[in-house]
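Re: duplicated header lines in exported C-alpha cells

Our pipeline writes sequence and C-alpha cells for each protein into one text file. With two proteins the header for the second block appears twice in some exports. Here is an export where it did not happen, for reference. First protein block:
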Amino acid sequence: MTEFNNVSIVKQANVYFDGKVNSRTILFADGSRKTLGFMQPGEYTFNTGAPELMEILAGELDVRLPGSDAWQTVKGGESFDVAGNAEFTMKVRVASDYCCSFLG
C-alpha cells in the first residue's frame, strides 16, 4: 500500500531523542492507528505497549528484538514485528523512513 485514504492525522508531531526520530499519527475509521516517521542515524531504544509491525520504507538499520542478543539488518522494503509490552533497540545506519502499525 503506497497511500492511505479516508484517514485523520494528528497535527502534533511525536518527537523523540532530541528530534532525531519524528513521526505523525494516522487514525483510521476502523479505530486502528499507524505512525509515519523518519529516523536520523543513531541508536534508539523504544518500549512498546501494543504489538507493532515496523515497515522500513527506505534506509537501513539494525534491530535487536526482545529476547534476543543478535542484531538483524533491515533495509527499505523489509519489516519486522515487535511484541507488546517489550523493549527493542535500533541502530539506524542510514536516515530511514518508516511506518509503524499498532496491532493490539
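Second protein block, exported in the same file:
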Amino acid sequence: MTIDFYYTPGSAPCRAVLLAAKAVGVELNLKQIDLMKGEHLKPEYLKINPQHTVPTLVDNDLSLAESRAIMTYLASQYGKNDSLYPKEPKKRAIVDQRLYFDASTLYSRFADYFYPVIFAGAPYDAAKLNKLEDAFKVLDSFLDKSEYVAGDKLTLADLALLASVSTIEVAKIDLTPYPNVTKWFENVKKTAPGYDEANGKNVEHFKHMVEFLLKKK
C-alpha cells in the first residue's frame, strides 16, 4: 500500500505532516511539488486537489488537502495508540483547539505579517507584528501549567505548532519574551520523532528562500 504525499519542503504545513507521519510511524511516498514552476496548477494535480495547494495526501481512494486534516487522519487511521490524538472527547477538544489556533491565529498572523514583505516587497507593518506578538502571548499561556501545548504528552498540536514556530524563527522574531514557548520549543525539537529529517533540514529550504528574496528587495 502506497500513501502519496505531495509537498514543498519549505512549507510549514507540509513539514507538520511530515512530523506527524514520523510520530505515527507511517511511510509516505514523497512527491515534491515546485510551486515556482506552477506544478500545483497542472491538470493532473488539480484532479486530486482543486484548491491547488500543498500539502495533499492520497491514500487509495482518499484525496485530502489541509495539513491539519491530514495529520489527524494519519493519527486516527494508522496510529498504534491515541497518544498523539486522544479519543477522549475533552482531551481531543483541547488538541483540536490548539490545531485551530495554529492555523487561524499564530501561523495566519505570521503569514499576514511576513509574506507581503518577502513576496511583494511591502514594508514591515508594526500593527501586524503586534498581532503576531499577541498570538505568542496566548501560546505562552497555554504552556503555563503543562510541558506540551495540550497537556503532559506530545500531541499533533505540538507538531503543527513546532513547524510554525520554527518557520517564524527564520523571520528573526524574538522569542525571548515568551519563556514558556522558548522552553517548549527547545524540548519538543528533541522529543518529536524524526525532527531533523522531517523539519530540521527542510526548514533550511524556507530560510534559503527568504534570504534570496530579501536580497532582491
